[in-house]
Every structure is written in structure tokens, then in C-alpha cells.
Amino acid sequence: MLKLFLIGETQTPTFQRLLAALGEFAPTDETPDFVLFFREYPGQYTVAQVAEVKRRFPITPLLSVEASLCEGESRTGKPLAGVHSVMWYDFLAQWPREREAWRTGKPTVWSQPEMAGADTLALAALDRDEVFDVPPRTLAISSDDYAYFSFLRDIFRWPRTFWVEKEPIFDTPDILFFDFPDFTDATKQHFLEMQTCFPKARWVAFVAFPRIDEWLWLESRGVTGIFPKPFRINDLRYFLSESKTVSLKIAKGMGFHDGY
Predict the structure, then answer these.
(1) At CA 84, angle to CA 229 and CA 224, rounded to 5?
(2) Quick check: 208 pLDDT over 90?
(3) DSSP string over 95-121
(4) 221-230 residue pLDDT tens
(5) At 98, is the secondary structure helix, strand, or coil?
(6) Cα–Cα–Cα angle for 23, 24, 29, nearest 5°?
(7) What are the angstrom distances between the C-alpha of 54 and each of 36, 47, 57, 93?
(8) Alpha carbons 104 and 28: distance in angstroms, whole number
(9) What is the reported pTM?
């Protein structure tokens, strides 16, 4: 069973949602598989505190899972050193695939040194050579941005892919990608109207810098896949895989967009 050492306050809505996403695990203070700092705001933990945890668990990956107040720290402040910093919404999108890598004995991206940059983490994930079981389906995409519609369309290149705002849909979509340009009342109303039109579709939402209330609102309306913008393409492939056991074979050319 996965063994975790958790540090921080977990009673906030953000971190309660994270705890639910972790799945079954055993809390431990002896050689955990991961150490997770739940970081609510900049300055909550010091470098000295991180160093003490590192001395205690020298071979364990250290992650700082960060709430929305930490969003701009990499631009305007000094990020916490000695840990892999990941925003809470990125963690929710990435964790299922990384946990599967751990379960099958493959390295997670967080097995890389804590100072590794995004390019190193991307290459580490691509080196796993994952193959995803995602057969063609009827896909509808709702977006007011042609560039983003094109990006989502080109991930799978399924023959029956429709742009909801621009062309008639003759088949009931199996999956509907909804690109949120914002989270205004007008956009939410458009989303609800689309759900009324396609009640049987599997819904996947793409949201830039989501807030926890927005995330929970989407889940309360049956959205099973929520991906922050930008996101790792292979996380979406894993989410839509019919088999959740990812085979690790030659699978070059998957590509990535602002992620991996």
C-alpha cells in the first residue's frame, strides 16, 4: 500500500479535496513513498523545516502541494526550496497517472531531484514510454477559441470530432470537451445549456487557474474530468483510457503541450 507522510492543515476545502483524491494510503512516519506538504500560503514553511524533513527522509520525494494563494509566488516571491512545488489543481490532474507509475514500479516525475526544471520532468515522464488504450469515439468540443479547439481536436484526431459552436452535430457525442474561457455566470449558463443538449456525454472541462469552489461546482454537475490550463496531454490520455493499467511499451511521438 502507498505510504504517505502528510504535513500541514488539511481541513480547508482545497486540501479536503486533495485527501479524497489520494485514494487508499497508509499514513506513516517511517520511510514513506512521498512526503506531502499542504501549503496554504507563502511563508508557511521555512527552508530549515524542509531541510529537517529531508534529513529525516533522505530518499523520499518531497512535494509541496500549494493552494491558490501561492499561485504567483514563482513570479513575485521566492518559491520554497528543496521540494517539488505543484499547484493543487495540477496535482489533482497529475496524481492518478503518477500513482499508477508508482504502483507499477516506474519512477514518478517527482523522483527527479527537487531542483529539476519543467523540461527535465517532461523528459522523465516521456521516458516511461506509456501506451494508452483510447479507442476512437465521437467527440464534441465547445470552445470560443479556434486555437484551443484545434489543440484539443489534434490530441486524438478522431474522425468524428465536432466544434459545437460552428457546425451541426449529427451524432450523440460520447465525450464533450468544454473549454472555459472564464467562470462568469454567462459561461456557466452556456455550460448548463450544453449539458441539457447532451446529457449522456462524458464531460471533461478545461479551466485556467481554477478555484476550489469552481472545481467543486463542476464535480457537482457530473464533470468527471477537470484539467487546468495548461495541462499534460498524457494525463488526459490516461483519464480517457479504457484500461487504467498503463502498458509501458514503445510509444514515441505522443508529444506534449505545456506539459507531458
Answers:
(1) 40
(2) yes
(3) HHHHHHHHHTTPPPGGGS-TT--HHHH
(4) 999 999 999 9
(5) helix
(6) 115
(7) 12, 10, 5, 26
(8) 21
(9) 0.90
